[in-house]
Write a structure and sequence with these properties.
Layout lengths: L3 E3 L2 E3 L8 E6 L5 E4 L4 E8 L2 E5 L2 E5 L4 E4 L5 E4 L5 E7 L2 H4 L4 H6 L5 E3 L5 H18 L6 H22 L9 H21 L6 H8 L3 H12 L3 H17 L6 H7 L5 H12 L3 H7 L7
Length: about 290
Amino acid sequence: MIEILEGTRETVSYSEHFRIRLYLNQETENYPIHWHTAAEIIMPLENKYTVVVNGEKHVLNPGDIIVIPPGELHELFAPESGRRMILQFDSAMLHQLDGFSSSFSLLGSCTAVRASSHEELHGILRPLLLHIMDEYFSDSPFKEAAAFSWLIQFFVQLGRSCILGENRFPNTKSRKQHEYIDKFLEVCTYINEHCTEDIRIEEMADLAGFSKFHFIRLFKQFTGTSYSYYLNKRRIMNAEKLLIDPNLSITETAMRSGFVSLATFNRVFKSYKKCTPSEYKNLQGVHRTP
């Protein structure tokens, strides 16, 4: 299934106009630790399938769904028999849609939707994946547009569930909750677009219209993480793209990613990716610039 693998980086091969790649995978071989710029959705159809994302193991039963954002290190372990749907797509297509980038960030390193524990959401998402599969392998006109429309609907439903379903602002009236959600989506979008700059928490509190203390509490309720964790995660995502450039040193990568010192960059990178920037470069087969 992995056609092009350099170090741990997989290059996903799309057809000329179709930025979705879908496999009905029946192979019994395991796939080593790797990452790619594509987002990935996996759903076993027959038998279980094991996915390890950043060291965290997820055993999927038939029908269970896991969504892996771009850039996450993961491994795949197949049983002796079985079949699973593996869908990869260029998430840049969806990032153009308002709010998608911010809501995608809330999914964490991966999101598993299981029939046993997310019955209602699973009942919505599974048919959408089957619609995508039917269109992908059809000869119907406009099949690319149709598959993409189902994919958008998939993430609309997942995003709404992620933002609304967990009651992120308890003890807050419904109208106020929607107001808070809009404000913090705007904040997250701003952070995503300006993470390499010196963004101070006071500026973000002003943008949202809250005091610093109130902002810190509400931001954690909305994202599930602290402001500093979220900002650093976005910076690390930026650094990952730069580290595969053999013409950039690690120091240059750190500075371009918004870190004030190499020591801070090394420490934060290792805490997020479980390896140092140098080790990450070596995993990609990239020779470091002196």
